[in-house]
Specification:
alpha+beta, 7 helices
């Protein structure tokens, strides 16, 4: 099996995020990043942070429908050219495992399908949880929260 993702530490992820100016240095903590820091930087730069609902999220939370990793991206990355993108992904599990993921989008589905192998325990990639996707080439953040809302912030 090909190496479909690179697992990096929070510290290395924060270095990448600071270097690409997704967060201001004063909003960043050396070994930690969350949506609040991103939103503070966006606000300081005059970026609008607007949220949209993910269709069928309530039914997904109730176990009535599934949302596949591809469906999640097709919804939340709408309007972005992501097919050749390099993603830096922070999941809820990243905070407990200290693992952040660098994934070329062409391997995203394989990464998501084998997510439990990367974090070391049995859990689906798509779940009612928070996600931060950094689209590194486009300097765009897609944040998905556990209530089924998402936003896109372009740091161009």
């Amino acid at each position: 099996m090909e190496n479909i993702c690179q697992i990096i530490s929070f510290s290395d992820a924060v270095k990448i995020i600071k270097e690409l100016q997704f967060v201001d240095v004063e909003d960043a903590v050396d070994n930690f990043i969350n949506e609040r820091q991103i939103f503070l930087t966006a606000k300081r730069l005059g970026k609008e942070v607007k949220f949209w609902p993910i269709p069928n999220w309530d039914e997904f939370e109730m176990g009535e429908v599934d949302i596949s990793p591809i469906q999640l991206v097709e919804c939340c990355f709408k309007g972005l050219k992501y097919q050749n993108e390099k993603l830096l992904i922070i999941t809820m599990e990243s905070y407990t495992t200290q693992k952040v993921f660098l994934v070329d989008f062409i391997y995203y589905k394989e990464f998501a399908d084998s997510y439990e192998r990367h974090i070391g325990y049995n859990i689906d990639f798509v779940q009612p949880a928070d996600y931060i996707f950094f689209l590194l080439n486009q300097r765009t953040v897609v944040y998905i929260n556990n209530e089924g809302l998402y936003t896109q912030i372009k740091f161009d």
